[in-house]
TrEMBL record:
PANTHER family recorded: PECTATE LYASE SUPERFAMILY PROTEIN DOMAIN-CONTAINING PROTEIN, PECTIN LYASE-RELATED
Keyword Glycosyltransferase: no
Family: Belongs to the glycosyl hydrolase 28 family.
Entry-linked PROSITE patterns: POLYGALACTURONASE, TAT
This protein's name: Endopolygalacturonase
InterPro entries: GH28_Enzymes, Glyco_hydro_28, PbH1, Pectin_lyas_fold, Pectin_lyase_fold/virulence, TAT_signal
Signal peptide boundaries: 1-27
Matches recorded under SUPFAM superfamilies: Pectin lyase-like (SSF51126)
Protein origin, superkingdom: Bacteria
Entry keyword set: Glycosidase, Hydrolase, Signal
GO terms for biological process, alphabetical: carbohydrate metabolic process
Length: 613
């Protein structure tokens, strides 16, 4: 395996380059944090400039395709007959590649994909100063065959394919390329004329005779009482998946990280062979300090790529298109600066179909988008385990968006080891129109634990409406042995309007040595409505507020145990959370200091008090 010099140097340079100058004052000291939010909006809203020349993909050989019908998965649990490119469909990958390269070589411009149905059996790789634009009615169907995303990467990994530098759930690796990819590019745009301009990842379309699809690779689900998410498409016990022990992975970390002491190795691996499943093996490589060049996945492995992944890019515009049926996360910008996503329809109901996951990004505007997802609508991330070289996610504004189905509407974490700060969310509608069959699990959500660690500070939320509430039944989390929190008693996975979960899925992480810090969070003017539950109750949620602070007993590193601080400096004001099903216990608190409620209405009762637990 070899990594070309350009990519190697870029990997070294990106962390050191930083994210540019900070804002003139921190959000925690500014007299009005919303002035700080406006400064971010102003900073990123300057229009990008491109040369005035169009490059039509048909000039480079692109031809539209005909379609055929196929039985496919359209969500976790539903199948339907849908259209897919016919088996003899012309592959537009070379034409798209050549048009983008010609545009880049000319100094930039616009690559135009006209109205029609287009099949692409490989990634669209964006280049600096190139604007890729889909006309109204242009629909790109990406190949559903995983090997097509291990053909064109810059890094030849032998039997695993030609792979791309990637991040999977916040750990660096060499893996399948995303369907749309960029690395180290500047001044790039991906736009559509309207929501008939579509990128379709075909995540639920079978790729073999057994009926397996990208989503099958999710494997076994863990969430208790998941509504409309109780199974994985076509998965059954014994099939390979990200959660199945992979015989290609090392039998012991001693093979790939001989510098570890025996105690370190045993801590990282944990008990048994579960750590050899790809989804556990990659974090183990990070914890062990194995460099990215030796974190090789791709063919023979089961880590699904994001639909759109941009790494180390500056000045990015994503606007005006529809993305659907994605294999994994829909959008995943990593270590990008000055990025705007505006008026995009993010719709995918498969496993882990997060809508927009900015990671270790600085100056981000998420505006006017609609989310209908199989996981978090928006999830802000910042590295996991030892992969924190890009620093925090910071200076992010979310406004004028609509959220439907999903786990969390606005989520921070769970991968946040590098820290998250200065996040502003305002003027949002968590519409939740599918509340009866596929409800939004929770509205405002924080996820971390003693593995993911990191910090969340300076998070401000205001002016949110939730007309149909959130999931009205509880989805509980499983605690570790010896925890003061009894398993299956606290609804952190789903059921609350505001959820701070600082003990997120602790059973999934072997190394638990990094207590998180949560401070300076302020939520105001959130209004939730009730719906009629199946048993005839009028309810908006199961509980209004769940704040589960860090759990010190989870720590499993060397003594002495470091300080495990409570959640601090949180205020919730001028809110009406409707009527919880659990009116006897409208909130749950653990390891929280001085949570201030001011004019908060729950089940018709107004609360103005300070709570600690």
């Amino acid at each position: 395996m070899s990594i070309n010099t350009h990519r190697r140097n870029l990997l070294k340079a990106l962390p050191a380059a930083g994210m540019g100058a900070a804002l003139p004052a921190s959000a925690s000291t500014a007299p009005d944090p919303w002035l700080q939010a406006q400064a971010i909006i102003d900073h990123v809203s300057k229009p990008l400039q491109f040369r005035k020349q169009d490059f039509l993909v048909t000039t480079y050989g692109a031809r539209p395709c005909t379609m055929e019908k196929v039985r496919a998965w359209i969500s976790f649990e539903e199948q339907d007959t849908i259209a897919t490119p016919a088996k003899d469909a012309p592959d537009c990958y070379p034409a798209f590649r050549d048009a983008i390269q010609a545009c880049h070589d000319a100094g930039g411009g616009r690559v135009v994909i006209p109205k029609g149905l287009w099949y692409c059996a490989g990634p669209i790789v964006l280049r600096s100063n190139v604007h890729v634009h889909l006309a109204s009615g242009a629909q790109i169907y990406f190949s559903n065959q995983p090997q097509d995303y291990a053909r064109y990467g810059d890094i030849d990994c032998g039997k695993h394919g030609k792979l791309s530098i990637s991040r999977w759930q916040s750990n660096d690796c060499l893996n399948y390329s995303s369907m749309i990819y960029a690395h180290g590019q500047h001044n790039i745009a991906l736009t559509g004329e309207d929501w008939s301009s579509t990128f379709n990842g075909q995540g639920g379309v079978p790729f073999n005779e057994q009926g397996d699809c990208w989503w099958t690779w999710k494997g076994k689900l863990k969430t208790l009482n998941a509504v409309a998410q109780g199974s994985t498409p076509n998965f059954s016990k014994g099939k390979m998946s990200e959660n199945t022990e992979n015989p290609l992975n090392a039998i012991s970390l001693a093979e790939v990280a001989p510098q570890l002491t025996e105690a370190e190795r045993l801590l990282i691996q944990g008990e048994g062979q579960r750590w050899r499943a790809d989804a556990q093996y990659l974090p183990a490589l990070s914890e062990a300090g194995v460099p990215i060049a030796r974190r090789v996945f791709g063919i023979g492995h089961y880590l699904r790529p994001p639909m759109i992944q941009l790494i180390g890019c500056t000045n990015v515009l994503l606007q005006g298109y529809h993305v659907t049926h994605t294999p994994f996360w829909q959008h995943h910008p990593v270590h990008c600066r000055n990025i705007v996503i505006r008026n995009v329809h993010c719709e995918s109901l498969g496993p882990n179909s997060d809508g927009f996951d900015p990671e270790a990004c600085d100056h981000v505007l998420i505006e006017g988008c609609t989310f209908d997802t199989g996981d978090d609508c928006i999830a802000i991330k910042a590295g996991k385990d030892l992969d924190t070289q890009y620093g925090p996610s910071q200076n992010i504004v979310i406004q004028n968006c609509i959220m439907q189905s999903g786990h969390g509407a606005v989520t921070l974490g769970s991968e946040m080891a590098g820290g998250i700060q200065n996040v502003y969310a305002q003027k949002l509608t968590f519409q939740n129109i599918n509340w009866a069959t596929n409800p939004l699990n929770t509205a405002i959500r924080l996820k971390t634990n003693l593995n993911r660690g990191g910090y969340l500070r300076n998070f401000f939320v205001r002016d949110v409406t939730i007309p149909n509430g959130v999931q009205t039944s509880p989805s509980f989390y499983a605690s570790l042995p010896g925890s003061p929190i009894q398993s299956k008693t606290v609804a952190t996975a789903a059921g609350a309007i505001v959820t701070f979960d600082c003990d997120y899925t602790p059973i999934s992480d072997n190394v638990r040595t990094r207590p998180p810090i949560v401070d300076n969070v302020h939520i105001s003017n959130v209004k939730a409505g009730n719906v009629r539950t199946r048993d005839g109750k009028s309810a908006s949620c199961y509980q209004a507020i769940v704040v589960l602070g860090p759990v010190a007993s989870d720590y499993n590193g060397p003594l002495p145990v470091p300080p495990v601080p409570p959640v601090t400096n949180v205020s919730i004001s001028d809110c009406d959370f409707g009527t919880p099903v659990n009116t006897a216990q409208p909130w749950f608190l653990f390891n929280v200091k001085d949570l201030k409620l001011n004019n908060v209405t729950i089940a018709g009762k107004v609360h103005s008090t300070t709570l600690s637990a």
